[in-house]
Structure formats: structure tokens, C-alpha cells
């Protein structure tokens, strides 16, 4: 355990940031899983309601990734890569 006051404060800040980062990353993973499940459902039985659900979940994932990037949880390129990967799944489904 640190004895210096500034070191104690840095430990507290690091813990706070770690929990925030963990929260964002977990949320992105969960939303991505929900999105992929919606894409699978839409692939099995295409319908206008399914398409709306897929697009809604895609926008939710994009929003959370953008917020995480803005807060510094993800590097800008990492956020862009994740969004591209998510978009690619849906584009392949549309083209098939």
C-alpha cells in the first residue's frame, strides 16, 4: 500500500477508471451478442420487424462504441474496427 498522498490518490483514480472501462467493454460485448442474435433470427426468417430490430440493435452498439471511444476506453481505430466488423455481418446478410 502506498504511503504518499499523491500515490494513494493515483491508486483511487486508476481503480475508478478501471471500473469505468470494464463497464463500457462489458456493455459493448453484451450489445454485440444481442445484435448477432438478432441477425441470426433475421437470417432464419426475414421480416420487416426483424430488420427493424437488427437496425435498432446495430445503432445501440454503434452508440456505445462511440461513447467508449470518446471517453478513452477504446482507441479510435479500435472503435472503427469493431463498428466495421459489425457492419460487415449485416452487409453479408443483405447481399446473400
Describe this structure in words.
There is one protein chain. This protein is mainly α. It contains three helices and no strands. Helix 1 packs antiparallel against helix 2, helix 1 packs parallel to helix 3 (76-95) and helix 2 packs antiparallel against helix 3. The protein starts with a helix and ends with a helix.
Shape category: elongated
Rounded radius of gyration (Å): 18 Å
Give me the count of strands: 0
β-strand percent reads under 5%
Mean pLDDT: 95
Q: Can you give keywords for this protein?
A:
96 residues; mainly alpha; 3 helices; 88% helix; elongated
Quick recap:
The chain has 96 residues and is an all-alpha fold. It contains 3 helices and no strands. The chain has one domain (25-95).
Topology readout:
Blueprint (H helix, E strand, L loop, with lengths): L4 H40 L3 H24 L4 H20 L1
Helix pairs in contact: 1-2, 1-3, 2-3
Amino acid at each position: 500500500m502506498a504511503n504518499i498522498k499523491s500515490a494513494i490518490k493515483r491508486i483511487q483514480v486508476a481503480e475508478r477508471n478501471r471500473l469505468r472501462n470494464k463497464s463500457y467493454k462489458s456493455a459493448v460485448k453484451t450489445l454485440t451478442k444481442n445484435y448477432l442474435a438478432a441477425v441470426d433470427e433475421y437470417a432464419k426468417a426475414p421480416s420487416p420487424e426483424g430488420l427493424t430490430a437488427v437496425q435498432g440493435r446495430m445503432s445501440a452498439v454503434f452508440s456505445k462504441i462511440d461513447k467508449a471511444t470518446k471517453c478513452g476506453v477504446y482507441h479510435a481505430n479500435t472503435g472503427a474496427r469493431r463498428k466495421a466488423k459489425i457492419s460487415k455481418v449485416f452487409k453479408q446478410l443483405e447481399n446473400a
